[in-house]
Amino acid sequence: MTRRPAIALGVLALTGIAGGAACALGALTLNLIAAEGECEVFWRNGDVQFKTSTPGTSRNSFTVKATSGSVEISGDPAALATDPVALAKAITYRGAGTGGFELSTADGRTVAVSEPDGTLPTGGVSFVVKSPENPAGTRIPVFSYPAPATLQPELHLLPVVSVQVHVITPVDFTPEFAAVLNDAFGPVAKGGDKFAFCTGDFNA
Fold first, then answer.
1. pTM for the structure as a whole
2. Is the bond into 121 cis (omega within 30 degrees of 0)?
3. pLDDT of residue 27
4. Which of 63, 179, 191, 199 is most buried by a 10 A CB count?
5. How many CA atoms lie within 13 A of 51 on its CB side?
6. Hey, what long-range contacts does 124-133 have (CB within 8 A, 24 or more apart)?
7. Is 19 exposed, middle or buried (0-12, 13-18, 19+ CB in 10 A)?
8. Rounded distance between C-alpha atoms, residue 43 and residue 172, angstroms
9. Is 169 helix (H, G, I), strand (E, B) or coil?
């Protein structure tokens, strides 16, 4: 099944190129076409400063974009197209891409976070994290969702099956990322701390 190119811009998620759709028993997998998201950071610590090379609409936000990914729809697309509640529960997003941020202190100690890779509506987001203790960087879970992300989808059956989804979710520190921050800066975070509020759009 050939996919038609399209572009969707918005605010967490990520940019890919349509390649096709694969069908399995009870599931349809669509290649990600485009996705982009923005996270507004509300976590604060007086000694730790936030900055990003991919800024959003405010000085305290950062953006992410996809370079690859897929959207899986579990169930009958014809039935789900008229039931947005069931459709939202049937969607699983997987994407990897670009974007991130840095947290640093006045003495130059920095934790840098890049190359997001995550799933929606559950799971979370991992990043490559570099720190003074690990300057080469390691991919670890960075964000978790306190509850399943809110998905607001629209499914189209013609001329080919396609889906557009708006996403809303807060994100929390994982224990793994909090441990990195504490190693770098002292006791500044713990797993479950609220970090940011994210919104985004993706289509496939």
1. 0.85
2. yes
3. 87
4. 63
5. 9
6. 124/171, 124/174, 125/171, 127/100, 129/177, 129/180, 131/180, 131/183, 131/184, 132/184, 133/180, 133/183, 133/184
7. middle
8. 10
9. strand
**What percent of the chain clears pLDDT 70, i.e. is strictly above it?**
88
pLDDT for residue 26: 74
DSSP, collapsed to helix, strand or coil, labels residue 119 as strand
Q: Which amino acid is at 129?
A: V
Q: Which helix (H) or strand (E) holds 73?
A: strand 61-74
Compute the mean pLDDT over every residue in the chain, rounded to the nearest whole number. Answer: 89
Query: Which of 168, 166, 167, 170 has its CA nearest to residue 144?
Result: 170
> What single DSSP character describes residue 4?
P
Q: How far apart are CA 13 and CA 34, in angstroms?
A: 9
Dmax of the chain from CA atoms? 58
Among residues 84, 146, 92, 145, the alpha carbon closest in space to that of 120 is found at 92
Residue 122 makes CB contacts below 8 A (sequence gap 6+) with: 145, 148, 149
Tell me how far apart the alpha carbons of residues 6 and 63 are, in angstroms, rounded to a whole number. 20
Structure tokens at 137: 């960087």
List the beta bridge partners of residue 202: 35, 165
CB 132 within 8 A of CB 109: yes
The alpha helices in the chain, defined as continuous H runs, are 77-80, 84-90, 175-185
Tokens of 170: 């807060």
**For residues 112 and 177, is the Cβ–Cβ distance under 8 A?**
no
For residue 13, give Cα distances in angstroms to 16, 105, 117, 129, 175: 11, 29, 10, 19, 23
